[in-house]
Amino acid sequence: IVFNRGILFLFSIAFVFSAHARETFSISGRVIDQVTKQGLAGSNITIIHTSIGTTSDNDGFFMIKNLPAANYILEAGFIGYSIKKIEIPFLSADTALKIELNQSAIDGPLVIVESNRAQERVNPVTFNNIDRKTLQPRYTVQDIPEILSELPSTTFYSENGNGIGYNYLSIRGFDQRRISVMVNGIPQNDPEDHNIYWLDFPDFASNIQSIQVQRGAGSSFYGPAAIGGSINIQTNYFNPEPQLEVQTGYGSYGTSKISASFNSGIIADKYIINGRISQIKSDGYRDRAWVDFKSYFLGAAMYDQNHNLRFHFYGGPIKDGLSYEGLPKFVNDNSKLRKKNYSYWGVDSTGNNIEYAAERRKDEIENFNQPHFELMHDYRLSPQAALKNNLFYTLGYGFFDYDGSWGTPEYFRLTPEFGYSVDSIPSNALIRAYVNNKQLGWLPQLSINGSWGEFTLGGEFRAHRSLHWGRLQKGSGLPDDLVGNNARHYYQYKGAKYIASFYYHQVYK
Questions:
Q1: Helix, strand or coil for residue 16?
Q2: Contact 317, 277 (CB under 8 A)
């Protein structure tokens, strides 16, 4: 009898385990924001090491059915939030979970400096937005002015004829000295002449997330005066997915491009690093209007529940053949003459023929570099208040060499009163014009939103220093102390500009 009871007991245990193994269970629950407790619609819920998963409904609820008894690790994620993992040691019954996610690591509209961007039905400004999806199919190697020239009341022209290098933009007839340009809310116009030198941003369109072009006075609270319009550029958002990409291409006029980029993805739930390098070369449409542009872009970000800290370092050393002198209109119909690149020229008495011209020399070149350093911090003080601080430092240094045979001893200060006696300037004289710019700035801003509207208080603080000089880089027959790297500067001056301003803005609803 004892033996039979033992058999019966073992049989019962086996039956229970067999039935339990055939039974399935479910995992259900709701994914919510840890702070607001609102459901997160479209959250991804997956079981690690399997292909099983689902997404949450409009209220954040989800359910995964038909799971056999086993150990599981559930992973829940939502764009803009940290990924959360939940371990279920042994699933033996239907299980309900409440999953709270922390806001974290995706760069998005939060980082756009809204005060410089017009909003529909809020700002009385005519504007166009170009997002990355629209921009990328249209971009290859051309500079930003050519891309924007398709917008209403916007035109551009290119010195070397192929949209790479020195390009000039006009909005509503105003040249770019009267157009405010900002990148991530940071002013880019030269503090001395208010110009914007697009060639110092080589291949920059590859790093752009969106562009807003405002026509007219614009809505910016700070930065250079913008009578013609404003251009606000936002660089790429940080991507949570790891990525490595290499691109290359070749086009007309000996144009080529090669680039490589990487993205680390999210590191330790709060860090992201990305970078990009590229090189663009072209012979140019016009003679000797070549370019050799290298570019770099490095970004790093750290995210917390209420903090967003980003660092950008970008720029690119450029080299190009000068081609700034225009041509008379009548050469447009001549396929050879319209490609000419003269240092100077003149027409005959009829005005229909070129009487004299000097071909631009091969040693008339430019060499420049303009690195940018940006540190941007966003702090969410509360659901209604945000504090932004942007620090930036911009360098710009280099030279351009151009023909100096037109000069006189008086122009170069080679007369007896300066201790020299030079009768004439040689025909191969070459001038080197050098510039070194430094700019440091701080842009604080406090924004408060409520049912009554929006309140914005901020400031702009910038300091700019510059050094300019010129010398004779080449010149046959001139004394050694007047030519070359150790030659005297026939002109030299320094510049300085300090900007401090405050602003207050109120929008009522």
A1: helix
A2: no
Residues 208 and 130: their CA atoms lie apart, in Å, by 10
Same domain? For 411 and 284 the reply is yes
Among the candidates 233, 266, 294, a domain finishes at: 233
User: Do 346 and 158 contact (CB within 8 A), yes or no?
Assistant: no
CA angle 234, 296, 364 (to 5 degrees): 110
pLDDT at 243: 92
Residue 375 lies in a domain: yes
Query: Is 464 found in the same domain as 446?
Result: yes
Tokens of 70: 């086993």
The answer on 373 and 344 residing in a single domain is: no
Q: Is the same domain home to 350 and 369?
A: no
Q: CA-CA distance, 411 to 405, in Å (whole number)? A: 11
Residue (of 382, 364, 506) closest to 432 by Cα position: 364
> 388 lies in a domain?
yes
CA distance 234 to 207: 9
Considering the entire predicted model, what is its pTM?
A: 0.76
Please identify, among 199, 233, 267, the residue that sits at the C-terminal boundary of a domain. Answer: 233
DSSP annotation of 69 reads: S
Task: Give residue-wise pLDDT tens across range 150-178.
Answer: 999 999 999 988 899 999 999 999 999 99
Q: What is the CATH number of the domain that holds 415?
A: 2.40.170.20
- Is residue 240 situated within a structural domain? no
Task: Tell me the sheet residues that pair with 435.
Answer: 398, 468
Together in a domain, 184 and 145: yes
DSSP string, 275-324: EEEEEEEE--SSTT--EEEEEEEEEEEEE-SSEEEEEEEEE--EEEE---
Identity of the amino acid at 274: N
Q: Give yes or no: residues 350 and 330 share one domain.
A: yes
3-state secondary structure of 179: strand
| Distance of alpha carbon 448 from the chain centroid | 27
Query: Where in 351-490 does DSSP place strands (E)?
Result: 354-359, 365-369, 372-382, 385-403, 430-450, 453-474
pLDDT for the residue numbered 16: 41
- Does any domain span residue 180? yes
Q: Domain range holding 19?
A: 2-101
Q: Using a CB cutoff of 8 Å and minimum separation of 24, what contacts does 16-24 make?
A: 20/69, 20/92, 21/68, 21/69, 23/68, 23/69, 24/65, 24/66, 24/67, 24/68
Residues of the chain with pLDDT under 50: 1-21, 105-114, 121
**Same domain for 384 and 481:** yes
